């Protein structure tokens, strides 16, 4: 099983690295050619919109088809369209060829969404039940590494490489992930085929009938919204409010990434006994962390203490993200029937991605109008009330159902 975990994580790392670096590379090209931040920002909307529109379709595909074939098809689609793009565009990008980029990015985001959802739903076929958490944590670490390296690779490629050479590199990485996926061994599905034409509606009814799962869907929505308070607010707090250097901000960002990778590695050897309980505990800690981000500028002007305090907060934040994601995914893999897992993951993924840009927009406006400590403290308190409310409502509904 250890080889399967390593191989699956490697596939996730290579494919996600290719897609992340490609997104970053084209984003810089868009900004350079058009000079428009709005057009540049449209690239960030493609993913959430694709997730939202494809959720019903994703349910039918993932919950009825062969997972290995779907994983391969998702990657092959990216591979083929990258090759087509490389042949058609060749040497350079300009305003006239940006439409090709849009088409390419939409297709790749479709295949990426299909790949992510299917990989999560394949855990029950890849490893035994006691290894679910280990696999989830390992894949989470691989994804974190890809998210860290992607912008670095994309930025370096933009500065040093020609467009054809970079696209060739991405084609090579996607091709490698396809070859690795071909070697995966998936056990037969222990499920009834979801033949009902309204299988997505069946998934919705299932989620509504399970209060604890419904609460996780709602939490995924709000957490991605409130997480934007940190991702948007940290640079404003560090650079604008506290007048610290950009180097300090980069250091804090790197600490978050290191914490996420370290947390994933830790969870491959440490087993969470109660995933649902751990999920709620993580979320409560998350709300406290948001509140604490509002305190440095209120309690001291000693920059060393402030940097140390913020360093602790971002490390804890990174650990919380990994623990919460791993606990949620593992819980759903255990509790959700195999013929509904694709639908549940699609819903959570779509909601999560949709609220990331919405959170960025909301908090961008809030940090422009209010002091950072006001935004952090009020956001943390509101998030705390919401989490407590969901916890009490979930317990009440479970007891009532019994």
Would you spell out the secondary-structure blueprint of this structure?
Layout (H helix, E strand, L loop, with lengths): L1 H33 L2 H26 L4 H23 L8 H24 L1 H4 L5 H29 L2 H20 L16 H11 L1 H31 L4 H22 L7 H18 L3 H4 L3 H33 L2 H32 L2 H30 L1
Produce a short descriptive summary.
This protein is mainly alpha-helical.
Task: Give an overview of the whole structure.
It is found in: Cell membrane. This protein has 402 residues and is mostly helical. The chain has two domains: 2-188, Growth Hormone, Chain: A, CATH 1.20.1250.20; 200-401, Up-down Bundle (Growth Hormone, Chain: A). Helices cover 85% and strands 0% of the residues. It contains 15 helices and no strands. The two termini are 37 Å apart.
In terms of quaternary structure, what is this?
single chain
What global shape is seen? Answer: globular
How far the N terminus sits from the C terminus, by CA atoms, comes to 37 Å
Strand content: under 5%
Q: Tell me the series of helices and strands, N- to C-terminal.
A: HHHHHHHHHHHHHHH
**Number of E-type strands:** 0
Question: What would CATH call the class of the largest domain?
Answer: Mainly Alpha
CATH architecture of the largest domain: Up-down Bundle
Major β-sheet annotation: none
CATH superfamily of the largest domain: MFS general substrate transporter like domains
The tally of structural domains comes to 2
Give the C-alpha Rg: 21 Å
Average the pLDDT over all residues and give the rounded result.
84
- Helix/strand/pairing class, anyone? mainly alpha
Low-confidence stretches: 191-196
Overall helicity: over 70%
Number of helices: 15
Membrane topology: Multi-pass membrane protein
Transmembrane segments: 12-31, 37-58, 70-88, 213-236, 248-267, 279-299, 305-332, 344-367, 373-393
Pfam family, one: MFS_1
Protein name: Permease, major facilitator superfamily
């Amino acid at each position: 099983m250890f080889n399967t975990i390593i191989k699956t994580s490697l596939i996730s790392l290579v494919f996600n690295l290719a897609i992340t670096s490609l997104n970053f590379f084209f984003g810089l090209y868009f900004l350079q050619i058009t000079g428009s931040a709005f057009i540049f920002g449209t690239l960030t909307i493609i993913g959430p919109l694709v997730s939202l529109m494809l959720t019903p379709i994703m349910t039918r595909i993932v919950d009825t088809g062969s997972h290995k074939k779907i994983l391969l098809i998702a990657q092959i689609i990216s591979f083929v369209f990258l090759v087509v793009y490389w042949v058609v565009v060749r040497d350079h990008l300009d305003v006239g060829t940006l439409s090709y980029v849009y088409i390419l990015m939409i297709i790749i985001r479709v295949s990426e969404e299909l790949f992510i959802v299917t990989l999560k739903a394949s855990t029950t076929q890849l490893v035994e039940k006691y290894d679910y958490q280990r696999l989830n944590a390992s894949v989470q670490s691989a994804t974190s590494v890809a998210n860290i390296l992607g912008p670095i690779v994309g930025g370096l490629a933009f500065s040093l490489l020609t467009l054809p050479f970079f696209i060739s590199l991405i084609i090579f990485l996607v091709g490698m992930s396809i070859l690795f996926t071909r070697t995966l061994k998936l056990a037969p599905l222990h499920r009834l085929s979801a033949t009902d034409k309204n299988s997505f509606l069946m998934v919705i009814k299932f989620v509504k009938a399970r209060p604890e799962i419904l609460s996780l869907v709602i939490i995924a929505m709000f957490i991605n919204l409130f997480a934007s308070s940190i991702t948007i607010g940290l640079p404003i707090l560090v650079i604008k409010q506290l007048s610290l250097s950009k180097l300090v901000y980069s250091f804090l960002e790197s600490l978050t990434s290191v914490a996420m990778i370290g947390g994933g590695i830790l969870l491959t050897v440490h087993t969470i006994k109660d995933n649902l309980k751990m999920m709620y505990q993580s979320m409560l800690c998350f709300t406290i962390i948001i509140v604490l981000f509002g305190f440095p500028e209120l309690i001291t002007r000693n920059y060393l203490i402030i940097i140390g305090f913020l360093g602790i907060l971002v490390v804890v934040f990174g650990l919380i993200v990994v623990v919460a994601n791993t606990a949620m995914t593992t819980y759903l893999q255990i509790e959700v029937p195999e013929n509904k897992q694709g639908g549940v993951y699609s819903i959570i993924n779509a909601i999560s991605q949709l609220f990331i840009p919405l959170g960025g927009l909301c908090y961008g406006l809030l940090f422009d109008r209010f002091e950072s400590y006001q935004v952090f403290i009020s956001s943390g308190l509101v998030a705390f009330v919401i989490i407590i409310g969901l916890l009490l409502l979930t317990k009440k509904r479970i007891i009532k159902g019994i």
